[in-house]
Design a protein that fits this description.
By secondary structure, the protein is an alpha/beta fold. The protein contains eight helices and seven strands, in the order H-H-H-E-H-E-H-E-H-E-H-E-H-E-E. The radius of gyration is 17 Å and the shape is globular. The N and C termini lie far apart (about 45 Å). The model has no long low-confidence stretch (mean pLDDT about 95).
Length: about 220
Amino acid sequence: MGIEQWTAVDEYLAGLLLPSDPALEQALADSRAAGLPAINVAPVQGRLLQLLAKMAGAREILEIGTLGGYSAIWLGRALPAGGRLLSLEFEPRHAEVARGNLERAGLSDRVEVRVGRAVDTLALLEQEGRGPFDLVFIDADKPSTADYVHWAVRLSHPGTVIIVDNVVRNGSVADPSSRDANVDGVRRGLEAMASEPRLRAGALQTVGVKGYDGFAIALVSD
């Protein structure tokens, strides 16, 4: 059992549970054509994010890491009338591609993409009085994961859902000999979640077309 079988199962599940969606498919195609890295969530993971946002009744969503806007389309479609999604992206080229994909999906009126270093932008959001957010999805540079968790909590309220992607790293997160900066960043992010008294956190290992990885999911308590 390995990546080929995991991919086959992913494709079976997506084919069964997810109808064809031109906007999502074109978003992936445009991201590839623009040379963006293929690190977007898988289709079944996108649906999971959408369902979690719906279950949380999220009206204000914060996404840290836009890439080509694929996950933003899933999350943006979970919003009720009047809801808003703010997505933060470091690379101007990625943000340009994402805005085009979001416009095609009919979400430009409810999704804003801001360009800049996320830690700096998050501090500005607090100064602007933005938030609290009902759901925060963290899928950006891994060395900064602990900082993103910190800001997610600061910009939250009791009941906010915080989701962190790519926390298993092909199992390396549990390998004490790993010196990879991404693995170390994820560990520090998980430790930040574990030590934050306002969070009740768990994690889920995943396999599929994206290989072996996982999500950490936390709920902000009183």
